[in-house]
């Protein structure tokens, strides 16, 4: 495999790590190959972190927090760096939108549009510097004349990001962490490390103090060292529920703080007053994003038994017409899966669905016109048992399962009958019914007649879909510790 000149990553120092404000040599010659999913060719090769590299990054972050200027700056001062980062990310939008499709298979036009919103994340948290109540007066109840609730940085943060939407997920972790006054070790996914390296270049360009942001790339085994390290105060993780369970158990051993944004098997509840064709088009279009490799995808479609066949037919008609191909072709509607093992996983679930008696309505194979690349056809199953493998487990690919329910109450019960609770949607023309059903769904987000999530408000899950929230004001809380201060006199600045 060879790297062609028009696909070389627009990054530098890929043979190094960004630690303590410098690009440092790795402790070994180990490398990770990043493969372009549409061509199966080498995109770039990057240094792989080992135990000494993780330890060095943690030490740099620890030193920057314990002795550096960052936590001792005012929130307003830190906000100025966030605004500079926002500008820097905006300037690198074209680079980022070249990297993302070649690492994860997202459409280039989607990547470019998505990059428009990333700078606004840093701007939003910068804006909280002057409006968030980092210090509030509180009335003592057990003695003392004056009380304060003070919200201080949690400390050193280990931020572990996945491969599917790295620029966005980095932003929703490091922007609130930096505003709070934390220092960060950012651990990139070995499948898609480009965004993290781009962020390191931005941090260097804006003059972020040494050790405030450190960037390494490592596999799961070495990444676990970051989770175990007692010098790390908090872990912020996005990834699978299986990995989340492991992280939670390790953090529990040492009472480390953690937030987990995990998997989903999200339900779309189709009520009887909504047009079947309209619902099918909406669901099919939504599932095209990142080839269904989205934790909050609406992949369980719950509909009344009398309308089941009509919805399956409509979904098969719309989803089968999706144009699959090159992510850089503007006519393409869905790109490849991110890696070979991901395609193997999806194909395994499709085979399991057929074996367990679900009816394959469309798809299920590889597109005939694509000779290479990790592509899979848009796939729809009908007559899916909610207790079956494809009814319960997260597939992480473009596979929709239609499940029949007896009535509205049963549809809600089916939707809630899952270990997950990340996202959901109610399809109905009746606003009151939509609101009533939404309140009964055990899910971190519930949309109306659409796939919806909103990191600008808050994002996270119930049950095994996670712990904590990212985005909005809620997303700042996990990076803060609450301290109670009680004084015997009222400070002059609080005296009226």
Automatic annotation (TrEMBL):
Keywords: Oxidoreductase. The keyword Oxidoreductase applies. Residues 23-485 form the Aldehyde dehydrogenase domain. InterPro entries: Ald_DH/histidinol_DH, Ald_DH_C, Ald_DH_CS_GLU, Ald_DH_N, Aldehyde_DH_dom. It holds the Pfam family Aldedh. The active site is at residue 261. It comes from the Bacteria. Belongs to the aldehyde dehydrogenase family. This is Aldehyde dehydrogenase. It comes from Pseudonocardia alaniniphila.
């Amino acid at each position: 495999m060879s790297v062609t000149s028009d696909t070389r990553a627009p990054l530098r120092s890929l043979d190094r790590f960004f630690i303590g404000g410098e690009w440092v040599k790795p402790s070994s010659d180990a490398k990770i190959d990043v493969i372009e999913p549409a061509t199966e060719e080498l995109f770039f090769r990057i240094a792989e972190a080992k135990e000494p590299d993780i330890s060095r990054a943690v030490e740099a972050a620890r030193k920057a927090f314990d002795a550096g200027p960052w936590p001792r700056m005012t929130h307003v001062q830190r906000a100025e760096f966030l605004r500079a980062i926002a500008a820097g990310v905006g300037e690198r939008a074209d680079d980022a939108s070249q990297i993302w499709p070649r690492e994860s298979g997202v459409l280039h036009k989607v990547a470019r549009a998505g990059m428009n919103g990333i700078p606004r994340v840093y701007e939003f948290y910068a804006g909280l510097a002057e409006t968030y109540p980092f210090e509030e007066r509180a009335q003592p109840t057990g003695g003392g004349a004056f009380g304060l609730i003070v919200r201080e940085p949690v400390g050193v943060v280990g931020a572990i990001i996945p491969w599917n939407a790295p620029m966005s997920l980095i932003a929703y972790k490091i922007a609130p962490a930096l505003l709070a006054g934390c220092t960060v070790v950012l651990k990139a996914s070995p499948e898609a490390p480009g965004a993290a390296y781009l962020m390191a270049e931005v941090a260097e360009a804006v003059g972020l103090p040494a050790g405030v942001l450190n960037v390494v790339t490592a596999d799961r085994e070495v990444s676990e060292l970051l989770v175990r390290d007692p010098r790390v105060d908090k872990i912020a993780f996005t990834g699978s529920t299986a990995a989340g369970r492991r992280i939670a158990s390790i953090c529990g051993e040492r009472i480390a703080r953690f937030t987990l944004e995990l998997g989903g098997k999200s339900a779309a509840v189709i009520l009887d007053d909504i047009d079947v064709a309209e619902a099918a088009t909406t669901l099919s279009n939504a599932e095209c994003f990142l080839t269904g490799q989205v934790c909050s995808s609406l992949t369980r479609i719950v509909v009344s038994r009398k309308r089941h066949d009509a919805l399956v037919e409509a979904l098969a008609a719309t989803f089968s017409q999706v144009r699959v191909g090159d992510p850089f072709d503007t006519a393409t509607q869905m790109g490849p899966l991110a890696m070979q093992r991901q395609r193997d996983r999806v194909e395994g679930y499709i085979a399991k669905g057929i074996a367990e008696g679900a009816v394959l309505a469309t798809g299920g194979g590889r597109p005939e016109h694509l000779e290479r690349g990790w592509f899979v056809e848009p796939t729809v199953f009908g007559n899916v048992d909610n207790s079956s493998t494809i009814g319960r487990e997260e597939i992480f690919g473009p596979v929709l399962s239609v499940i029949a329910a007896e009535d509205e109450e049963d549809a809600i019960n089916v939707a809630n009958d899952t270990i997950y609770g990340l996202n959901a949607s109610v399809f109905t023309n009746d606003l009151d019914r939509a609101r009533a059903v939404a309140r009964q769904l055990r899910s971190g987000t519930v949309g109306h007649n659409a796939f919806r999530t909103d990191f600008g408000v808050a994002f996270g899950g119930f049950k095994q879909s996670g712990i904590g929230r990212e985005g909005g004001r809620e997303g700042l809380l996990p990076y803060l510790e609450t301290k109670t201060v009680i004084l015997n006199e009222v400070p002059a600045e609080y005296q009226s």
